[in-house]
Every structure is written in structure tokens, then in C-alpha cells.
Hints:
Largest sheet: 2 strands, parallel
Order of helices and strands: HEHHHEHHHH
Number of helices: 8
Organism: Lentzea rhizosphaerae
Keywords: Hydrolase, Membrane, Transmembrane, Transmembrane helix
Pfam families: Rce1-like
EC number: 3.4.-.-
Transmembrane segments: 43-65, 86-109, 176-197, 203-224
Distance between the termini: 32 Å
Amino acid sequence: MTLGLSGLRSLVRLIDSLLQPTPLNQQSVAINVPQARADLLDLVAQLLGVLQLAAWGGIGLYLLWRTGIKLRVIGLDGTRKLADSLGALGLAAIIGIPGLAFYFAAWALGLNLAVQPSTLDNQWWMSVALILAAAGNAWAEEVLVVGYLITRLEQLGWRRYTALFAAAVLRGSYHLYQGFGGFVGNLVMGLVFGFYWQRTRRLWPLVIAHTILDVVAFIGYTMLRGKVSWLP
Length: 232
């Protein structure tokens, strides 16, 4: 109903892109786009999208809570602020730098669409909306894909690494709309993030790291769009 359905829609979008006469790397896809012509209505629509993402993560936490799993069990308590922050910075560096290089390589090889992280105009609220969108994405994905899904699969008796791989495939699936590179890159991210969580049982580092990655992508692209020749 949430990210699983998003994965199926992403697959349909990828197939549609493959059926076009234009190669994948000559097509583009935008992530954060205007949703209304009126400025304030667009802001409201963007915030509603963030609210939906927050609710998706909340559903996962509620279902875990119903079976007696509290926030501290999956690592969403506030007892290790410094360690969680340092872990987040490390994860962001491990994923962000190689991930950017991988994206450009996949795009150059024709395996990926040109991804536009944001096509929002320079409204006064744009930066705030993009930061909130980044946090919403991170919250929904890490809570559902890692905290909820891996926990449930392990409870069902799945082997540790089988559960890890299944969650990583789900993460890659709802990025298929970006192309094969988007799938593989997020699959690897899912393996790294999921492995870290299985070792530490701390979810905050994943949420924070994911937020950092998306903020850099969304805001960075907005600042560089039209100003550098190498950006798709």
C-alpha cells in the first residue's frame, strides 16, 4: 500500500520509458515538481506530500508498537545522540560520493534517465519545502524498509541476510523510474544501510544520513541548474 505499490508504479514508468524511441539517457525525470499553478496552493500541496510520508513511517511504527516493539528497540530513541550523528555522517559520505559517480556513469552509459531532483521555481518557500521533503523521504523509507520490514521478516524466520537483501530490493524497486542505475544504486544503499542497522540496531543514523543525501541533491541541484554544463 505504500512503498511496495510505489515500486510497481516505478516499474511501469520504466517500461514506458524503455518503449520510447528516445534512449534512456536522453529522457529526463523530475522528483520535486510544482503541483499547483498558484504559489500558495503549490506550497500546501508540497507540505501535504511531506505529511503523507510522515504518516507512512508512522504506520510502520504503530504496527511495530502493536506487537510490543518500542522505539528504542529499533534505534529511534534519543540515548546516543553523538554516536548516531557521527554514524550518519559516515554513512552519508560512504553512499553520497560513490553514489554520485555511479549515477553519472549509469547516465553516460545509457542505463539511466537524467534525474532532475527539483524543478520548483525560486519561490520564497522552496528551500524549506525541499528540506522537509528530504526529511519526509528519509523518515518514510528508513522506518518502513529497514525498521519495519527487516524486523518483520526476521520475526517470520527469514535468515538475516535474506531479509536484508529483500529490503534492499524493495528500496531499489521504487527508484526504477530513474532507470537501471537508480535501481542498482539504491539496492546497494539498502544493503549498506540495512547491514549497519542489523549490526547496531540504531535507525536514527539512517534517517539522518538519508536526509543529508537528499538535501544535498535537492538544494545542490537547484543552485547549480543552468550554471554548469556537466549537469544533466
